[in-house]
Amino acid sequence: MGFLAVICRNRSIAPPAEASYAALGMRTLGQSLLVAVLLAVGMGTLAAQTDVEALRAKAKQGDASAQFSLGLMFANGQGVPQDYAEAAKWVRMAAAQGAAKAQYLLGAMHYNGLGVPKSYAEAVKWYRMAAEQGYAAAQYNLGLMYGLGRGVPQDDAEAVKWYRMAAEQGNAVSQFNLGFRYVSGQGVPQDYAEAIKWYRMAAEQGYVDAQFNLAVLYYHGQGVPQDYAEAAKLYRLAAEQGDTGAQSMLGFMYYNAQGLPQDYAEAAKWYRIAVEEGHSDAQYGLGIMYYNGQGVPQDYAEAAKLYRLAAEQGVAKTQYVLGFMYANGQGLPQEEVRALKWANVAESRSSKGEGVESSAKELVENSANELRGKLTQQMTPEQIAEAQRLAREWKQKTWDELKKELEAEDR
After folding, report:
1. pLDDT tens digits for 288-344?
2. 172 closest CA partner among 321, 325, 30, 358
3. 254 in a domain, yes or no?
4. Residue 39 included in any domain
5. Which of 355, 368, 252, 364 is nearest to 6 (CA)?
6. DSSP secondary structure string for all residues of 52-110
7. How many domains does the chain have?
8. Rounded distance, CA 376 to CA 25, Å?
9. Quick check: pTM over 0.90?
10. 35-64 pLDDT per residue, tens
11. CB count, 10 Å around CB of 363?
C-alpha cells in the first residue's frame, strides 16, 4: 500500500518509544505571570466607590486599604484618568504598610515597568513580601521568577517550593505547574502519580492545560492505565473551552473510535472548529476526510486546500501529499514544478525530523524521495531549478498571512 493510502486510511497513533512530555505532545509550564488579574483585584468593591475625593482623603490619612484602592483606580482609569505613576505612588504606600495585595501589585508593576522602572529584582522583592504572607498569586509569581531565573538565580527546587505553597491554597496554574514538574522531574523526582494528582486538581477547576495534559496521560497510559474514554472526556472539557488541540484530538478519537463511538460527522465537526483557528493537525485530519469522503462529500479540491494550509504551517506529511496531488492533478491543476517544490520541502524537513512525528519520519522521507525521482525524470533542467528555488524560498507563514494569500487567490 502506498504512503498516500496509508495516511488517508489509517490515522492510528502508536505511543512514542520514549514517553517524554515533549513526545507525548503535552503542554509545558505556564509561564505567564498573574498580571492580567492584578489590576482587577478588588475591582468589585471599587465599582461601588463613587466618591474619589473621600477615598483620597482616607488614603492621605494613611489608610492602607484606601491607598490600595486609589492605586487600582489610577491603574485602571476608573473614576480618574489612567496614570500608572500615580497608581504606583499609592500602591507603594499601601505595600510599605504590609498590604499583601499591594505588594503583589507593586511587584507586577516593577516586572512590567508600569509607572516605575522595570526591574525583575524589585519585582522579586515585593512578590516575596506578599508570598511570605501567604498570598497565593504572589507565591506563584515568585515560583515563576525562580523557574525562569529572573531577578534571582534560576533554581528549580525553589520554584517548586513556591508553586507548592500556592497549589495547596488552590491556585490552579500552580497546581498545573507542579504537575508538570513531576512529569519532567524538574526540581522534584519524576513521579507520575503526583503529577496526575496535581493535574487533576487544576483540571477540576477548569484549567484547560491541565485538562489537556491529563488527557494525554490517559491516552498514552502514562502513569495511569490507558483509558481512551477518560482521555476523550478530558479532551472534551478542554475542547468546549475553545482549546484547538483538544478539539483536533476529539475529532481524531471520533474518527478512530477511540473511547468514543466511531462517528465521522462528529469527527468532521470538531476538526472543522479547530481548522477555523488554524490548527494544523485538524487541517490534516479534515483533509483526509474530504479526500476519502468520510462524513463529508468526497472533494479533492477541499482536501487539497486543507492539506495546503497544514503544509504551509510545516507539516511534512501534508507537504508530501500536496506534492502528490499537484503531480496527479487531484483537486489542483497538474503542475510538476509545484509538485517537486513540495516533495523537496517534505524530504528536506522529514530527513531532519522537522514537522513529522518520529514514527512517520522514514515513511515521509522515502515517499517524498520516490516522488522526486519520478518527477525529475520527466522535467526539464529549468523546471527542476525553478522547483528547487521555490523550495528554498519556502518559509512557514503565519496563519493570518496564509489566510490573506488564500483569500486573494479566491478573488
Report:
1. 999 999 999 999 999 999 999 999 999 999 999 999 999 999 999 999 999 999 999
2. 30
3. no
4. yes
5. 364
6. HHHHHHHHHTT-HHHHHHHHHHHHHTSSS---HHHHHHHHHHHHHTT-HHHHHHHHHHH
7. 2
8. 37
9. no
10. 534 444 444 445 444 588 999 999 999 999
11. 16
Summarize pLDDT for 96-147 with one digit per residue, the tens: 999 999 999 999 999 999 999 999 999 999 999 999 999 999 999 999 999 9
What is the number of alpha carbons within 13 Å of residue 40 lying toward its C-beta?
Answer: 5
Structural domain contains residue 16: no
Count Cα atoms within 13 angstroms, Cβ side, for 77. 3
Full residue range of the structural domain in which residue 90 is found? 28-185
Q: For the beta carbon of residue 60, count every other beta carbon within 10 angstroms.
A: 13
Q: Are residues 219 and 228 in contact, defined by beta-carbon separation less than 8 angstroms?
A: yes
35 shares its domain with 179: yes
Q: Does residue 191 or residue 396 have the better pLDDT?
A: 191
- Per the structure block, which three cell numbers stand in for 260? 468514543
In a domain, 283, yes or no: no
Report the candidate in 102, 94, 96 with the shortest Cα–Cα distance to residue 137: 102
Pair (176, 319) in one structural domain: no
